[in-house]
């Protein structure tokens, strides 16, 4: 395993920082084992770059000059791994990024509603705010926000969103499809508003990528302009990546330190100290923040999360692919002739295949008896006839009109005397109408024909099939693909797939960070603290008052860091839960009533699949909260050990009382992640899964009768034909 060292002047252009990358951080433990690490001073002369492969993955490590000179090549391969050096694109330190994110949160809470009014009513409010004639009569928030807004961004967002909604109103044949896509575009509206605030420098907020505007490279400027255009309304979910850059790149130790300063009772983590339980000597204070960045703990996280992370990723890819495939069908209105490929879906809504049955038959042997009266000859015969395929409820039980044609293809008159294995409805002249019976592929009838047996034997039975209503399968088979009308729905589909994917990646990345944060913190008590390049951890005895106080102080800061991450995750997961509740509730109502409009029923199925692809990331949150909740049992174990020691030594420095207080805090007053007032836990998640599985099983066991949803009257305005149902 080779290690290549380069100075800034000789580093490749794709790795070497540009002039605006002033904040690079040394990855050596001597510098990185810190709560608030300072960036490398004088990057031009002191920064060093080491190219290594870590478990087969290329990585660039950054060092200050002193650490680079002091470390061996093997040590350089085992330093903590930082990603923020690689994604650093502006002159913002780690703490400044976190502070900027908090300001953005405040701005979103304060200005989201005023901004929504400005964007949605831009043709009215824009001139009033721009020219000032009626500005004094407008709300103060609108007047306060307007000068700071990127006007071009706002105008482009209004144009793209309004154009999208007009396209939705014109391009889908069913009203329910318009409502479905309109609600999905509600996410785009939300993300577009957040994107505007992300680029609105107000109240001290600084955007991480605005400096790209000032880059003199025309290629970078073009890329950034295209990205901004997409975020304005094309694919606005991409703008979440800019927010993610603020809080996902800094090391967890920095996030914990920043959060400690925002607590109601701020904690100075740099002032905390720990004692070695064996020697009673102070432990190096850098080891405590080191637990959040050290490589041994990172390997422990990989061992715990490895296969689970892969399973979640596999589930995410599968759900996004399935969601895209189902949405592309006629149900989503994207490709009208593409079938809904869920096995048994049509049987669930009692939609027969409405097959166009074929018929064949012949005279029964020795069944013809001719009677001649004067010049007239009449023959009484038995015809044995059969359907292809065999009639069933699923295939369809249509009204069949039967007639017999001669060699000139002219129907001849006949009179039915008796019929077997069919439900005869009417017979007159040259036609007989009847319904086939389920699972009766063959039937017979005795009838009288004009002519002798030879003439009757030459007749050919012909059947015409009539269905009272068009089945779903017949509707899909009758659709034609108008290429000109597919472009916009396909754009919406690709946008939805991108939205679902980026949406889930953002939530999954931060949910995994929350889980990793609690695993690292839990390692303080369960594993210990690792020296800079040591492989044997130093145990932390929480029975020591100093260690216990420090542990609890860090825990409070970890909870604060969790709040910082959940401020991003929680709203998105809450929206997915609302979507699941509405879609799942609608399916239950239709299952209980026994009737369902189409394609509304299948659109609710799509909504359930779409929400599940996001809600799978409740699992890492539940694992994190499981670790947090288990601290109560862990402290009780420490309390028991302390009581045993106290009985032996008869000494107490107040640790027992302190443990009792901490146990009560963890058990009864701990701050957990909640959704709609319900704490996140593995038990609650299991209950949700069981409830969902039971509900879906119930829905799948209930066959409903379908009726067609309301047609979209605007669909015909762009040259489309309203579908015949």
UniProtKB/TrEMBL annotation:
This is Transmembrane protein. Coiled coil: none annotated. Signal peptide: none annotated. The chain crosses the membrane at residues 111-133, 154-175, 187-206, 310-331, 474-494, 501-521, 572-593, 600-621. It comes from the Eukaryota. It comes from Saprolegnia parasitica (strain CBS 223.65). Keywords: Membrane, Transmembrane, Transmembrane helix.
